[in-house]
TrEMBL record:
It comes from Nocardioides albertanoniae. This is Putative OsmC-like protein. Residues 58-81 are annotated as: Disordered. The lineage of its organism: Bacteria, Bacillati, Actinomycetota, Actinomycetes, Propionibacteriales. Residues 60-71 have a biased composition (Basic and acidic residues). Transmembrane segments: none annotated. It comes from the Bacteria.
């Protein structure tokens, strides 16, 4: 029997080492992620993420990422970026797919391709104030994976299930989260 080396680009040994270390020091596992958002014009804004608190102190990683948000012309906007709700869908897909890659690496499954299609159903009468009985958010979200891997269909389904179980964004979307908004 030939042994195959699996390389999905995930350093599972480092992740397992971090898990073991944080089991010994649970206070270091408390992170605060941050983003700023600046209005530009109309419904167009720019978000920026850099730095975070974690491992017991401020973390300056030298990373800085910007993304823009806007709305399409159908909303009388200038279409300068994805809508905020589309950004939520991409966050969900990114989180779940990262988990699929990590779990596959851990289980010795070589991934050849992974594509997630994420859809959110949204009745926009809520955000427009057209009907007070319609909620502002999604009424449903669906994620469909197309995965080509050196594994059985059952093993691939188990990868996705484990990723879903460990996904922060999936948890945020499916469980109530306290959100506090203030003005300074």
């Amino acid at each position: 029997m030939t042994e195959t080396t699996v390389d999905n680009g995930v350093n599972v040994e480092a992740l397992l080492g971090a898990r073991a270390a944080l089991q010994e020091s649970p206070e270091a596992a408390k992170f605060t992620w941050r983003a700023t958002n600046t209005w530009l014009k109309g419904t167009h804004s720019r978000s920026k993420v850099e730095g975070f608190f974690g491992l017991g102190e401020e973390q300056e990683t030298g990373r800085s990422f910007e993304s823009e948000g806007d709305h399409p012309p159908q909303f009388a906007a200038e279409n300068q970026g994805p809508t905020p709700v589309e950004s939520v869908l991409t966050a969900l897909g990114g989180c779940l797919t990262a988990g699929v890659a990590a779990v596959a690496q851990q289980r010795g499954i070589q991934l050849n391709s992974v594509t997630a299609t994420i859809e959110g159903d949204h009745d926009i009468r809520g955000i427009l104030g057209a009907d007070a009985d319609v909620r502002n958010g999604f009424t449903g979200v669906r994620v469909n994976y197309s995965i080509d891997a050196d594994a059985s269909p059952e093993d691939i389904e188990a990868l996705v299930a484990q990723s879903q179980k460990r996904s922060a964004v999936f948890d945020i979307l499916t469980n109530p989260t306290a959100v506090e908004v203030s003005v300074s």
